[in-house]
Every structure is written in structure tokens, then in C-alpha cells.
Amino acid sequence: MLLIEKYLNTTIRHHIFKRTTRLFTTNINNNNKIDKINASEINLLKEHYFENQEPVIIENGIQHWPAIQKWSDIEWMKETYGNHIVPVEVGKNYVDSEQHEIPLGAYLDYVMKKDTKLDHGELPTLYLAQYDLLNQIQELNDDVISPFSHQDTNKFNIGKIGKGDLYSTNMWISGANTASNTHRDPLNNIFCQVVGRKYFRIFSPENEEDMYPNHSVFNSNTSRVEKVDCSQKEFDSAGFPNFYNVKYKEYILQSGDMLFLPKYQWHYATSETISVSVNYWFL
Ligand SMILES: O=C(O)CCC(=O)C(=O)O
Fold first, then answer.
1. Cα 32 to averaged position of ligand 1 atoms, centre (Å)
2. Dist. CA 268 → ligand 1 center (Å)
3. Count of domains forming the chain
4. For residue range 102-154, what is the model confidence (pLDDT) as tens digits?
5. 176-197 CB burial, b ≥16 within 10 A, e <16
6. Does residue 8 fall inside a structural domain?
7. Is residue 64 part of a domain?
């Protein structure tokens, strides 16, 4: 905590995503579950889900990554790579959110504390989000096997999909109960859950009109609805009456799972535990 406080007094940079801390529930309604396939059915990802732009979970799709075992030891990660300086988002939402550069070790200390009952809600909301740590730390890159790699013939491999343009690879490291706000991205996403559990809610494209995007051009990819699990009355008084009926699918990714999230679909994610993920954006 002391280290975090020390390093929070550094340069402010532009943030990309809104986020907030919200109380999450693990109650998943079976009727709402995102479809699930296993790695041997990978052809369905291309032939059905990508073609129809429908989300799908590939259960255990990255179970063969060395990262699954190695990164689960956060203390080891801290000891080994703790001196690297990384950008961390600080703040509950985009209005307060700032980006600070701190040592990875200080951030991982925070993450471990956030995961215990030692955090009585006093800790600020920090998030190492959407950052290409794999490019910064080559050894970490060696622990993952890109699902787009053509060398990975024996294991799960997507190979060429869509236009075959991989736009970026990012890491997401968060403490328990860290959430992204509801937003959408212009790229297809393969989201890989390496450590811990992460809840995803993906809103139906047919309710596009009822997502209440921000008015400013810069934030128009982010919804103004921050509290999503409300009664009709609460949505009415918050000025988002139609949100109550918006359809969605949901799932809790476990370590080893992979999610295909089609471009432009509104969604948010919440870490249920310490969480480390890698995602690939592509067209
Ligand atoms: O994991 C998160 O917090 C958000 C991930 C996300 O929104 C994305 O990959 O598009």
C-alpha cells in the first residue's frame, strides 16, 4: 500500500476505458448462458459463431499454455518481474480515472491485498488494463501460445479467421471485484482467461438502440448505464427506462477458458477473483 501511494504521485496520462467497482453476483441464469464448445469443435467457431457474429466460450481452449500454471503464482510473478514499470488505471470511472506508471511488483501487491478480506473497501480501484505486457516482458510472451499461431498444430489453434488481421494483444491484471463499464469495441476479440475467474455479460445486438451511449464522440463506445442490475423503477428514475428489457448472455470464464466476443457487441466484465487475462483483437 505504501508503495502504491508513493507511485500514485506520478504523471497523469490519458485513459482508455471507463471502469468502476460494483458488487457482482455469481448467479447465472441457465437460459442466458453464452454457448459453449470444446477445443475439438474449433471448426464451429469459424463456421458458425464467427460467421454469425455470435459469442461462444471455448472451454479449456488455452489449458495447454505454460502460463496457466506459472502465472497462477502471483507472488512468483512479483518476485521475477516486479521491477518492470507498467501503466495502471486509477479511479472508479472515466471521469476520475487517471493513468499512473508504477512497478509491476507494487501493483501485484495491491492485487493480492484486494483479493483478501484485508481490503475493507478502502483501497482505490486500480487496474492494469489493455496493456501489451507480453511485448514488454519477452519471458511472459514465451508462456503463451497465440491461438492464431500456425505452428500450434497439435493443440487448439484458430489459424486464419476473418481477414486474418491481428490488431493487438493485451494483458489485463486485476484484483477481485474490478469491473469494466459497459462498452463496445470495433474489433473481434478472443479473450483468454489465464488466472482466476471473470464474469462476462454480453448484450444482444438487437437492443442496440437501448444501450444509452455517452453523448461525447470520445466516449460514445461506452454506456451511461453504470448500475446494470436494477428494477424497472430504478431504471426509470435513472433515466434509462429501456435498459430493463435489454437481453443479454453471460458466463463466468474459468482459468483455461477462451471467449469469442464479436465486434461492436456491448459488454462488460467483472473479475470475481484475482484475474489475469490475455486478449487478441482482430478483424
Ligand atoms: O476484462 C475486462 O475488464 C474488460 C475486457 C473487455 O472489455 C474486452 O476485452 O473488450
1. 19
2. 7
3. 1
4. 999 999 999 998 866 656 666 788 999 999 999 999 999 999 999 887 665 55
5. bbbbbbbbbbebbbbbbbbbbb
6. no
7. yes
